[in-house]
Structure formats: C-alpha cells, structure tokens
Amino acid sequence: MSDTKNWDIFFYETFEEEEQELRRYLNARIKAGFTKQTIQESGHARPPASFISIRTQSLLPEAWGRQLKAILSRSTGYNHLLAYRNQTQTTAELGYLPLYCNRAVAEQALTLWMNLLRKLPRQIEQFRQFNRDGLSGYECAAKNLLVVGVGNIGHEVVRIGRGMDMQVQGVDIVKRFDDVEYVDIDSGIKEADVIVCAMNLTPQNRGYFNYQVLKKAKPGVIFINIARGELSPAVDLLRLIEEGHLGGLALDVFDEESALAVHLRNGEPARHPAVIATLKLADKPNVIFTPHNAFNTIEATRRKSEQSARQVEQMMETGGFIWPIPEK
C-alpha cells in the first residue's frame, strides 16, 4: 500500500468483510485504496487522495484540512467531523451514513443487557465444573428500561425493549416519536433497571454519564453504552463497579477509544487514565466489552457499503454528498 498512487478515494479502517463489500458496490471506474489501519497507524504524512473515508478512530491531521476536498465518515456519528471543521476551517465536503445500522446496534444493546441479566459470562465459566451456584439471573419482562437518546438507534432499542415486555421510557431533548414515553433524566434514572446510552455526542454532553449521574440510579442497575465512549468516563465507571453500585456494565464504545485501540492492537504502553481504567474494568466478572462492533452484521455491512458507494459516486459526480453532516 503506497501513499503516492493516484487514488480517487482512499479508505481507512476497513476490516476484511467491509473491503470486500465496498469493492463489490463501488463503480469499477473508481480507483480506490484500502487499509485496515487508522490514519495515525498508517504513518501517512499527507493524504493519499483528495477524497478519503474514515471511521471514528482515525485522527485527522490539522494540516490535511487544506489538502482534502471531501471526507466521508462511515459512521452514524459525525461529531468528529464537525470538530475537525471547527478546528481547521476546512472547506472539504463532509459526509456520514445516518441510516445503515440502526437495527444492528439496537440488537447489540439487547444482547449485552440480556447477557448481564442472565450472568452469561459466569455461566460459561462455571460450565467446566457444572456449577450453578451464584448464577440466578433476571428475566426482561417487567424490568424498567431507560433509553437515553431516542434517535434512529434509540427508537429501535425502545421497540425491542417493548417486544421483551419491558417498561420502557426515553430521554431526549427532541421528542421525535409519538410512541415513546418521554421522561426527564432525574426521574427516569431512579427507576431504571437497565440504562442504554444511545445519544449523539456533542460538546455539551461529553461525560454525561459521570459518577454523579449514575450514582442517582438504584444500586444494581445495568448500564449499556452503544453510542460514543466519550459519554461515559471510564474512571467513573470503574469507581461505580468497584463500589458495587453498578450491577453490570457493557460497552461497545470507549473513553479515549483511539488510544485504547492502539494499545490493544500494537502493544503500546497504556498511559492515559481512561485506558488504564478500561483495562481494569475488562477483568471484572460483571463487565462485558466488545470492540466497537455493534454495527457489524452481514446485513448492516452490506447497507453500509452500498450507502458508502452512493455517497462516493454522488460526491464525484456533483461535488456534494447525499447525506452531508449538519451545519451544527
């Protein structure tokens, strides 16, 4: 892989199945380069193309803002692109994929809270002794589910929770859906048995699920984050787990995720307090971590690749995206 080829577009952070699907959907005339690495892992000193595509772990160099014509983030979130535009004043067109993985991510949330309610990691561990001691779990029916952030993904979580006969409430500043019972965070969190974070990340809500907020929940509450890691500080989560206030914790996204991923992939020393706290949490029996993989179903990967190809072709033909990021 070279950074001197005449690519029309260069894709960072592509896992094997995704690259296969992207090649299938992209027009054959488009010259595309691929790497599984992030920008920082690639060591590229300059953009390999004037049009690049990333996910959420790549750190966009400030100097690239003057060299790029377009950036496509293959993600439902776009705060990283908005921050980059504000930081660099880049005139590059910025696009994202708001629709491809709503069901996939919502089902991952369900998978995680059910694993914690039924103590599945301990069940698997104790199979070798065929020991049932300490394995009594809980059913979903009649439990209180609080979904914080009721956008496209959050609404799918609400629907799934109802399908499991849970009592579901939602928290959001924008009340988009008529079929959701909305509450404020202070009243909702006090009654919740399971809390799912499905919020968009903004400068205003960074660190939203901190120690003080989650301490308002009743002891034994289960907390799930399938949105953005910056919303739930790892140091605070570690404290809540060690105090026994959280009954279970499951994350698919992580505080300082880029640094965590580099540490785990490349063995670089863990120095950031958030990374150190995350590694400590990973050893707890009531904690489940997955590698930012909630989007990754066969169906969603196909939708993602097809929608990415549409975005790329629209940009190359018209100079604009089908789904540009919002102005603010």
Automatic annotation (TrEMBL):
D-isomer specific 2-hydroxyacid dehydrogenase NAD-binding domain residues: 111-294
Protein name: Hydroxyacid dehydrogenase
Gene3D superfamilies, per the entry: NAD(P)-binding Rossmann-like Domain
The keyword NAD belongs to this UniProt entry's keyword annotation: yes
Key words of the record: NAD
Pfam assignment, any one: 2-Hacid_dh_C
Family: Belongs to the D-isomer specific 2-hydroxyacid dehydrogenase family.
One GO MF term: D-lactate dehydrogenase (NAD+) activity
